[in-house]
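Example 3.2
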Amino acid sequence: MQFDRNMLIIYGPTGVGKSDLACAIAQKVPAEIVNADMGQLYTPLSIGTAKPNWKTEPVKHHLFDVMNEPLDCSVIEYRQMLSAVLEDIWSRNKLPIIVGGSGFYVQSIFYPPIAKHTDVPSHGTWDDLHAVDPQRAAHIHPNDKYRISRALSIWNSSGIKPSVYVRRFEPLGSGHIVWVGRERAQLYARINERVLVMIKQGWLDECKALMGTRWQEFIQRKKLIGYPELFDYVQGNIALDDAIQSISKKTRAYAKRQETFWRMLKRTIQAEAENQFSMSFEELNLTLSDHSLYINQLLQRLV
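Structure, written as tokens:
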């Protein structure tokens, strides 16, 4: 089998079963798994990020537990780490299976993120953006700090107005992208059940160990779902049942946002890939599909 500069990307909403599918595929083809989930980069964040028990898996895993300090890992840094890992896997003629639900990390596989100059502040207000690019500002809500900051970073780093800036399509390789979904009722039921399982697995103890450390502030700032609610419970500010309901609700909402991001990402990549790169797409409904049969069909196409 030859996998020269080819990769398989498994993307989908939280709780859908991406990791299980990736491991099942990797056991049938010479492959190694690469993480594309932000939370799973960090060593102390395990149960709450649904991190697989990657150290005991027969298949080699990459980019799990690579961040030992509560520091941001930007999409620029992620793409750099990913590029090195891919080159290593390809050098051994194996297939990289990139799996995760962090949309901006997955997007960085195809579009090099914009570098920010260290002497240029990345923050700013809607008024700051409006002053340099009224057209872009008109399409951003004044309270949308992320998009305001990103638009200003484009202007500060390149001198190009965000409204006319065109991202470079430079994928790290060719490949096959699988969006993994389920019927909405089943997905939500899985999410609700998974929260309960994570509590039983010791998520509360994981949170207690992080409280009062720099990790707690980091988690609050990154808005990692579930941890803040359990911090509140441990501090006596909320009942456990209420915390669980809030975590489940926020996780379901996050799953919907991931679906929306996928539709956007698919449109933009397809428009580019038709002319420049070999990039195929597939949507897999795990509620309706035979898991084993699908894997065999997929492997035939990949080979």
